[in-house]
Amino acid sequence: MLQAILHRTGVGVATLIVVSVLIFVGTSVLPGDVAQIILGQMATPESLAALRTKLGIDQPAYIRYFMWLSDLMSGDLGVSKAGSGIGTIGTPISEMLYPRLMNTLRMAGVVSLVAIPLSLSLGLLAAMYPGTRLDRIVTFSTLSLISVPEFLVATFLVLILAVYLGWLPAIAYMSGNETGWQLIKALAMPTLTLVIVASSQIMRMTRATVLNVMSSPYIEMAILKGVPRKRIILRHALFNAIGPIVNVIALNLAYLVSGVVIVETIFAYPGLAKLMIDGVQTRDMPLVQACAMIFCATYIVLIFIADMATILSNPRLRHPK
Amino acid sequence: MKEVKTFQQMHRDGQLNRRDFLKVMGALGFSAVAANDLLIASKALAATPVKGGTVIFANNLHGPDDQMDPIVFTSGIDYTRGVCTYNGLIQILDDMTLHGELAEEWTPNSNATEFTFKLRKGVRFHDGSKFSADDVVWSMSRHLGKDSPSVAKSFFANVTEWKKVDQYTVKAILSSPDSDLPIKLGEKQCKVVQKDTVDFTKGNGTGPFRLVTFQPGVKSIHKRNDDYWREGANFEGIECTAITDPIARINALLAGSVDLVNNLDARGIKLIDQSPGAHVNSTPSGQYGGICCLKNTAPGSSDDFVKGLQYIQNRERVVRSILKGHGMVGNDHPISPAYGADHCHELPQRQYDPDKAKFYLKKSGYTSAELFVAPVVGGIEDACLMMQNNLRKIGFDLKIKKVPNDGYWGAVWMKEPLNVVTWNMRPTANAMMGIQFAPGGAWNDTFWNNERFGVLLKESLAETDQKKRHDMHCEMQTLVHNGSGMVIPYHTNILDGVSDKIHGIKNVPLGSLGAYTWPEFAWKA
User: Taking CA atoms, what residue in A is nearest to B58?
Assistant: First the structure.
């Protein structure tokens, strides 16, 4: 067990380094650098050269990469190039990241608190009574929702709940002094959108894996013994199905942290994914790198937890021969 | 009727005079008597400013590169924060008239090479310190010099020095005459900051609002400055944020989540017109969408080729169907009627003429070309597709290469032989012409170098006789219209969405929402 953990941690760190190189190469291939983006239409060769020297980006890419890597090892994420503009002091990346990270985690937390119990219970219900009207309704509606892109779900919700009914605000804008009910109202719309998107997938996975286990011989044995269906599912089938379910939950959680840029844009919610896109658009390398590292680390940690859960829930994996 | 209400509001807020109001009502089918009744009714709408209320403004862009240092202001949200926090020496109000802000009065010497500014006394910065000539000299000198990072430094290339005369008098010394200096000082980057400021994110200015929080790419919160040196703002507080998605921006306005939005897509206007609670402010401007044909390379080097592209522009149709009427036809030079007296109304409008286009293109010898198109300004992609279609009808094959906005100014503009371009309106015709067409200039994006044009550019700045000045500008516009590689089919209007609760926003052609001057003058009722 310990060996497995160590092995996986090593693989995780290696993945992080590979990703950081890829990101570095990827952003250098993009046309234009941060100096060109800052000066935009107003750039001249002299002003570009002056700004590049000022920002320290006139060095070759590999030197900048190792400078960044050594700073990171000492816990320094660096200073935003774009925000530092010209003549003014740059904002430290950590200062920019922290509130955004908190926003993202808050949203991901609220969504998973609603989505995971909801989708697990709906999935189990559908698996308990396959072929019934309940199962058909759940299967059909989740299949429809999975196929609709999230910007459409979001825009529809805004049109109905905000523009026509006026129940909820159209954007998740927060002045900073919201409490209780106001905060819930501000977050309701993006949460609802993400719950719809995330839970459909978890629910379908739950139903499919549980039903798959239900067709195995040992369940047939239990049925023949006369064990009640509810007990079969909750006691015998669910634990054997937990591996795939936990993995799909982990992937969805990682998506909630890193991939919700569309929802963040539509609801003007200041999260981490939008920050990374801004970073790419302004060619702000340190910012892009920092965001990429956080996203990559999130994936690695969540998948690691999911794998551990799979192993722990399955005696055959827990005690390998 | 929705239109009537909008026009009534415009009349009440001083954007539409009595005569124009009656004219519009006539066009909408009202009798003269009925129109007059509507005029009187519009005055009855609350017309006196009301104090109080918080307003939320959603810009179309923001990001980690938002600034509070005036000399590097580049986007609408920067400008708005600048107007809240700082003052300039001079302010441009509607009709492009100038008013003293921190400067009480200004006087040029006889040949416009020296300007003396008398400064306002008793003005204080938000931290309580006194405003004086030192602050002005320091702030304005930051635009000067080769290494200055100021984005407005090209306006002040001929300023050699700002000099303090006494505690409340400063002088600007110029190397060549520039009668336009005062209007340039009204630009958004020319705000006065405290001498020796290092950390601009604190926003220590003399403006009508104090900066409470500033989070780049998220929001800023501003609170009314009760010690302001004049009457003061009406709003209790202002919050600035951005919604980058155009549809989400409109929805937020319609749902009442925000009060003001800018940069509406022409396609979204109908939606706002049909909904209660908000209306569209459409301001004619000098911004344009155009096509650059580089004169130093094929095919733009052929004057006949450029003429062919100019005659194939169905300008009226672009304005009517692509811009939905919120724009003006262009005449292949940047100076639209919004520039006022400097616009050359004598120059005949170039019309859509496929026969002439065919003749000139045939003469040029080209049968195909490739145009690089990015969505740099509203309507440009559709206008290019329309052009492609019209060219096909006369047997010319225009290939359109669509590229993203991202990186466009560095990788495509001024590099590819045919590319699209947009220029925002500059405060004066001379500044606009100078920045884009000065011979050998850094941003001469068609590489068109005309000696006579360069001479006129310099002479018109020194000319104080209005008639002669107009003639010079007319000649410059004619030169660009006939000789440069610019095809300018249309000028766009500035399109803003405004909640019906917000009143008193002036129309200034230099930018959204009264060129971002609304924080001080608008009110909520």
Answer: A268
